[in-house]
Amino acid sequence: MSLSKICLLTAVSWAGLTAGLSTRHANIKRQVSQLRGSYDFVIVGGGTSGLTVADRLSEAFPLKTVLVVEYGDVQYAPGSFDPPADWYGPNSFQSAPLWVFFSQPNPEYNNLTALTFAGQVVGGSSAVNGQFFDRPSRFDLDSWTQLGVSSDWNWRGMFPYFRKSIKFTAPSSQVAQQYNYTWDLSSYGGTTPIHASFPPFQWADNQAVLNGWREMGVRQRQDCAGGDKEGLCAVPTSGHPVTAKRSHAGLGHYADVVGTRSNFDLLAKHQAVRVVYPNGVNSGPPTLEVRSLVSEARFNITANAEIVLSAGAFHTPTVLLRSGIGAANVLSSAGIEQILELPGVGANLQDHPGSTGVAWEYTKPGNWTPMPEEMADPTFKADATAGWNEVPARGPYTMALGNQAIYISLPNTTPNYPAIIRKILKQTADGSAASFLPADYRDNTALVKGYKDQLVTLSKLLRNPKVPSLETPWSTGYSTAAILLHPLSRGTVRLNLTDHLAQPIVDTRHGSNPVDFDMQLANVRWSRRLLDTPTMKRYGAVETAPGPAVQSDAELLAFIKSAATLSYQHPCCTAALGPKDRGGVVDNKLRVHGAKGLRVVDISVLPLVISAHTSSTAYALGEKAADIIIKEWTP
């Protein structure tokens, strides 16, 4: 396709999205009087997975109607580093509307609170995230079968949907060589207008850190999107290859298609309250009770085929709990009548915690330019802004937050990994595993059994030298992050007892399983070795954190707790795939156990947090779920 045609299509997509702000698009509904009498498919949540499903169903069934109910509205979604932002400066944060979640204090981290964001806009979290577009390790998905999940969900079963879900555009050979971008086209192949690309820019000191990792023996992989990613990876951005604008579900699965779909409606500015089964859970599909955010009016929407919950890891379980689906003790405490016992609802919360791995100063820095601090120069920033507006775009604003990361396994992080594995297995053998679980489900047989199975599964994953346990993304600067990819601690999402429609109570409980700190210690000790490499010594890198005086485990542990980031924005797993007797909420077709006509399709169905940022998996999940639904409803 020619450059001019690509640019024209991009302009049409953005015009289609923003048109809803000034005129009433025929497909956008804002009050009950505009809705049809009923819909075949009702999807709760216009986010990454939900819009993917809506797009595919409205395409496959032109005679069936699809409604998406979205709390937010159609709005412009800036990239994670767009003009006029600085790079991590005082004006660096800008975003489409989003939810802000503060967790309960984490006692093991000095009562630190986890801060998590989610998109409150058409496009969901794909419209507000950091645009880092990696995929999980094949071993992550393959391990789910040990938890009672069908092999349909292993890497072989999911890989076609990873390929289908995005359109990858390779950079020029000159850009690829300049910035060490490598890839394998066989990992891609989709035509969906959800774009993955590499930017034509990186900060000048990026190469120094990259050389340091190489000198530590980190293997550089040609491609990390095909399931094998232990090593050094080049990671694309979820951005358009020509304009560098953010590519998200609100564009690729809504604005780009809705104008040609008379059967695809979107109800904006409405909250899904609950699903209602007037004649019992076996009589589905249920109706959906919604609340207008403008008038506060409530009304029911009739689904003829089924309702799909795609409200995310925090809001999907709250819809289920308000519906009376969950653990008896949790519902009782909220004063809600139970209609279905599913203790896994709102349980099993996982995310990626981490801390600074190592920080340093250069006493003999290279003559690096351009660097982030140059954004403070009005001339440099003006040129960067001009480059952003060119076609094709160029300069700093094209790069989002970065495109490199290392993914290191536990055996390659520490020779003491067998002792860590033994600690995990001891918890399952001596019965202590349950003591690390949240108090309100510690005595639940299904949840305890499911957690023990997870620990056994994770012990196998963590001893595998091909399975990443530590992630360190970087683009510039004087520090590295040490992100824990397979934490053992489990949290909860619960209703606010004083206002069920308010933000849920999130308790991440990071560090509640002490083995997490063993892995964190290993990660930080390994990361510090970066400063012993020839490249970093050549530039006179001097450690500033943890600091040369911090050497003992106790001292390092104190540092980890003080330098912690308790959410890298990847909450998941609160309505997990798996058997009901192990705490599962949905079956292998993503149907809620025991609730006819109700399905969950979002990142809450993951049984274990993956060794990746979650957006690419959310797209693939939506594609696979759409295929499942289409097959079930095709005569």
Could you give a short description of this structure?
The active site is at 570 (proton donor), 613 (proton acceptor). With 635 residues, the protein is an alpha/beta fold. It has helices spanning 3-22, 48-60, 138-142, 155-165, 173-179, 206-215, 249-255, 312-322, 328-333, 378-388, 410-413, 417-430, 445-462, 515-528, 534-538, 553-562, 615-633; strands at residues 28-29, 39-44, 66-69, 98-102, 115-119, 167-169, 195-197, 231-234, 264-267, 270-276, 287-292, 298-309, 325-326, 340-341, 354-362, 404-409, 468-474, 479-484, 492-494, 505-507, 541-545, 564-565, 598-600.
Structure report:
- The protein is built from 17 helices and 23 strands.
- Helix 12 runs antiparallel to helix 13 (445-462).
- Strand 6 (167-169), helix 5 (173-179) and strand 7 (195-197) form a beta-alpha-beta unit.
- Helix content is 29%, strand content 17%.
- Residues 1-24 have low confidence and may be disordered.
- The chain has 635 residues and is an alpha/beta fold.
- 54% of the residues are buried.
- The strands form six sheets. Strands 1, 2, 3, 9, 10, 11, 12 and 23 form an eight-stranded mixed beta sheet that branches. Strands 8, 15, 16, 17, 18, 21 and 22 form a seven-stranded antiparallel beta sheet that branches.
- It is globular, with a radius of gyration of 24 Å.
- The longest helix has 20 residues, at 3-22.
- Substrate binds at residue 568.
- Residues 312-326 form the Glucose-methanol-choline oxidoreductase N-terminal domain.
- FAD binds at residues 48-49, 121.
- Keywords: FAD, Flavoprotein, Signal.
- It comes from Triangularia verruculosa.
